[in-house]
Each structure stands twice: as C-alpha cells, then as structure tokens.
UniProtKB/TrEMBL annotation:
Entry similarity comment: Belongs to the dUTPase family.
Lineage: superkingdom: Bacteria
Name listed for the protein in its UniProt record: Deoxyuridine 5'-triphosphate nucleotidohydrolase
UniProtKB keywords: Hydrolase, Magnesium, Metal-binding, Nucleotide metabolism
EC number(s) recorded for this UniProt protein: 3.6.1.23
UniProt catalytic activity: dUTP + H2O = dUMP + diphosphate + H(+)
Cofactor(s) the protein needs: Mg(2+)
Renumbered residue ranges of the record's region Disordered: 126-145
Pfam family, one: dUTPase
Length: 145
C-alpha cells in the first residue's frame, strides 16, 4: 500500500474508499458557509487538504457520479491533476450543468480522488511512424459492429 503525507485542516474525514474495490476516494467540501451554484456557474471549492504526492505519482480529481446524475454537477477540468510538487490546498472546480441552482454544503462529498502512477517521456523526433490497421482514423473511425 502506498502511503501519502496529508494535512487535514477541514475537520472532515480524510479521503476514503466507500467500497472494498473502489478506485476513487471521496473528498469533502470545507466551507465556512454553503455555496450556491446557479445554472452553468462554477466555483472553486476548498477541501482543507494538503498532500505530498510521491514523485512518479499524480492525484486525479474526478466527478462523483451521483452528483452528476442527480444534480448535473461536474468538474470543469476532469480529471484534474495534482502534481507531486504541489503543496497548496486541494480545491475542486465544480460546475452546475443543470437548469436549477445547487447548494454545496460544508462536509458534502464533492469529488473523487484517484492516485495513479505515471511515466515521464522523452520525445524521439522522427519522420515516420509504424503502420497500424487503424492508421490515422480518429473520432468515431472504428465505428460500431
């Protein structure tokens, strides 16, 4: 198990898995007062969490499916990436994609956090790429069968 240093200034539980096989951990809002998001409004919601992600890893901030389905609440930059050298507070950029206002309450589960290993790459300039069956086919090119 990977362990990560974390400071919790929120008074809410640390990010946690809700089921035995969950990939994402729920993250809570840390608010002095509720924030109302009108239709198509966005707001940066603090969590009170500060993390020290190990080198070679990132933390990905993702929407919660229940908020998206029931209320149309998503993340503007999804998934958001928390880099290993960032030491500021984790904040979640929520957006209300519905046609009704949504109130974000203190302590509400607002996002999921997934910690993932990543690679750094070095580019090798070339004039040719290997051939594949798909080739340059892009958006929708594989069709449906």
């Amino acid at each position: 198990m990977l362990t990560i240093n974390i400071i919790n200034r929120s008074g809410h539980p640390l990010p946690s898995y809700q089921t035995a096989h969950a990939a994402g951990m729920d993250v809570h809002a840390h608010l002095a007062e509720p924030i109302t998001l009108g239709p198509l409004q966005r707001a940066l919601i603090p969590t009170g969490l500060f993390m020290e992600i190990p080198e070679g890893y990132e933390a990905q901030v993702r929407p919660r499916s229940g908020l998206a389905y029931r209320h149309g609440i998503g993340l503007v930059n999804s998934p958001g990436t928390i880099d290993a050298d960032y030491r500021g507070e984790l904040k979640v950029l929520l957006v209300n994609l519905s046609d009704t206002p949504f109130v974000v309450q203190n302590g509400e589960r607002i996002a999921q956090l997934v910690v993932a290993r990543h690679e750094r790459v070095g580019w090798l300039p070339t004039e040719e790429l290997s051939e594949t069956q798909r080739g340059a086919g892009g958006y929708g090119s594989t069709g449906t069968k």
